[in-house]
Model the fold of this input.
Amino acid sequence: MEKLENIELENIKQIMEKVLSASIGKIELKNFLDVVVEIGSKKLEAKSCSIFLLVDGQGTLEIVAGSGDIGRKLTEAEAKYCVPERNPLSQKPEETYVYNTWEEEKKLIEEGKLGMGITAWVVKTGESVRYGGRDEFEKHPEHRGKFEKTQNEECQSIVEVPLYFKKDKNKKGRAKADGVIKVENPVNKKEFDQADKFILSILSSCVSAAIQKIEIDEPKSYKQLFNGAKLLVDIINWHEVNKDSIDGTNRALMKEISKFSKEILKWNIYGIEKMYDKIIIIIKDINKILGFKDNDCIKIIEEITRKYEEILGTGLRYREHLIHQFQVFLLGLHIINSNKRIQTAMKSYLKANGINDNFDNVIRCWFLSSIFHDFAYSIEKINDWLGEYFKTLFSSELSKEKLPFVFLWENLFTVEKYEYYKNILIKLIREKLAVPFESDEAAEIHYSFITILMSKSDMRKKNHGLFGALVLSNRLLKEKFDDPDISKIVLEGGFSIALHALDVYQDLFNVQKALLQNIPFAFLLVFCDNAQEWGRPWMNELEPGAIELDVINIADEFVEIKLICDVSKNVDVKTLANMVGGIRKYWKHEIDGVKFHLIYINKDTGATVANL
Done:
């Protein structure tokens, strides 16, 4: 073994200081890992440094950070290995096997017909490796050279060290590796030496310790916050099956969403800040694909939502609304793509309202309806937040006081032609809901809804659906769109948003018998908004994991969303029942041959808690 006297202690000290400084303060894991690979490649003078982590419970080892040209290419290729359950091979497989899918590759690796790759072997065994030349590592029983063509450079020398930061144990009671850090191809010498391996081991230890700290400080991943894995995985699978049969806007849209879904579902590398940023980016991409350009849609998200949510909310208690809106959009898009009858109903609705009934316009209308349905929620809650702020500030003096915040909300919408947009909205409601009524009582409810809902007295209720519809219409209709249909679609989006709030749609559903045919976008918004309650502990004051998405079952005859309810985690069953109760009678009916089901199931007993 080579002596280590030549190791520069100052170099090791700098590594530890850099890693320590990178992990102190508010930092997200993905940003930290990006810093670490830069430190690794610089300090070991390597062409590339990369980190692979186990991203699921199925042995998938995927690149999450990479430096240099090799690291960049591996990241773009979403490089991944399979860490199998089987024991490591003692000799290389003699035959060469061909596979077409990831599942086929995993099966061949598990059967020992393919090597898992040295990187996966390091995680499997927990052993570090250093190879000075190709003739050394090519003899390894598990060697495959899987990504040499991808990185467009032969591997000449490598050092790989396992990462440990969880408390999982293997069957022998030893700690299980959670990933690997590796350097590849030195810059100024022929091969890495033992000193390089020692330095990388120190970097690995520093990184593992820092990750444990970051995990404690920032434990929220997309899956943990929203239990959204099922929906995103279903969307990814749908895209894989249908990507060759869809075209145009839908093809570009689903490609971007599938790419986003794969990235956001990687192991817990994104905290709430990073998730928020990435969702704003994907919304901007979708906005561009749909032809809205960089308009006030994006300004609402970036200049209003992004800027004020953290101020008006408390931690995650309000900020998750943007991600919730995005989840509602994804669920509705998945339903529209998977259920042709609903898609047909929406096209017929657009045509009847003088709008081109192509698929692009269907998605445009759904995008506006869903992505912006809750953005005015801050208006509805601002008095409560101000009250809490002052009670906290003057806790002893105001603990029992009900603070008299007075603002003439009805006056807010007399400026900038809001009265004009309010009249347009009332006109749309009158026209679209003008159907025969079975009784005088139903007719009176309908009349009351139209005339009183948006009166000055009702404005003081600050209904976020109505305010949202007015603000969206006012901001977007000032713009000149290349496509004349878009102005009409903006009004349709505002119309759907106005009807989605609880007190509004409960009144509507008491008098309407055919909402899917008459107002399909508003109908789908109400359904998806109610269905997408999984993983929203901050809004429902539930513990994380209290409600989880179990089934999304879609066919032309039905749409079924099944949610598992853990009643041991402070779940108010009455609240769930009341939430869906107002529309239960309506949704049980068969509409255009499509049945809609939203079911809450008791996790322990399997009994139905609430059923639409």
The two ends are 70 Å apart (CA to CA).
